[in-house]
Amino acid sequence: MTLDTADLVDRRIPGRSLEAPFYASREVFDLDLAAVWTRQWIFVAAEGELPEPGDYVTAAIGPYSIIVVRDDDENLTALHNVCRHRGARILTEERGSVGNIVCGYHKWTYRTDGSLLHAPAQDGGFDPACFGLKTVHVRSVGGLVFVCLAEDPPPDFAEVASRIEPYLLPHRLREAKVAARVDLVEDCNWKLTMENNRECYHCDGHPELVRSFFPTYGYREDQLPPPLRPAYERYCRVRAELRETYDRLGLPYETIEELTRPSGFRIEREPLDLAGESFTPDGTAACRRLLADFPTARLGHLSLHWQPNAWFHVLSEHAITFAVLPIAPDRTLLRTTWLVHPDAEEGVDYDLGRLTKVWTATNEQDADLVTRAQCGITSPAYEPGPYAPSEYQVDAFCTWYLTRLREHLRR
Asked: Which domains does the chain have, with CATH numbers?
């Protein structure tokens, strides 16, 4: 039986979770690729992963393989990882460095800007200018690299980028280097990964995280469960103190929440608990070398959410990026990258285990939770349930997602 995706989209009840086919159907997954993943700006890397000319990363977005490379002029270029000869996959590693981009099949050779440099044994009428690698839109925002596969990307991206960058630039992420990168495959649909991140209703399942992260995220004061009130009162006191620091340092901190626009996002600067410096058991800095010339490490964290596939935590002394990429209806890649000052030395300025401990544990706990969700949703007994008030950002994500599907289905 063919699934009526338009009807499925139209009958969604606001304030409730999505029906099972959204998470389990191959037809919906293919629709997601067409309506979301090939049309929106997708976060794929940090500039710190591409510090020198010739450095590259590859990213799989559904059936597409994308190369992001720093070209010989030190600009970022994004290219389809498909040889223009007979279509072979050119670069097979997730990251590396090249002089030129050489296809391992028949040795067609491309410059780092994608232009064809050499094609062996072609006839005299062959024009190399007609056979460069196909390009992909690419844009760095404060050191975060986004690509868009659409011919005409969402037009609001430039305006959104101009509002996000003032928050990011003081942390000098363009200069930061990679301390660690971990790929985790979760046994769930990509939307469950994103929904799980958009609420803290489940944060009591993250004992390492809630040592320093206030578990009151998403709650209004009049909605707070009594056990969370002491943490909320502490949060308010620290927030007031930190805002004086932010004002003195010229760091923007006000919340901007526009989650349902085409380039949907949420950004804010907010406190951490305990020492207030980092995601560690006691809240103290995980790296002695700060990312920038801050006079204090106690800056809480800058939080950025991006529709449809990323979130970020930027602190005084390191930053963490999280990229979500779809593999199959029930499999999703979560790629986590830790960034530190370019001169920070492992074993001297930071201990890698301490730097990565909290979010490694949190990611593994979340992977278990979203696997449970996927298993339950595929049961015939499942039906959409109501969101709690603190899960309003999950509802906003679903609204954003369904809007993108409706736009696609109307084309």
From this structure: 41-153 (2.102.10.10), 159-409 (3.90.380.10)
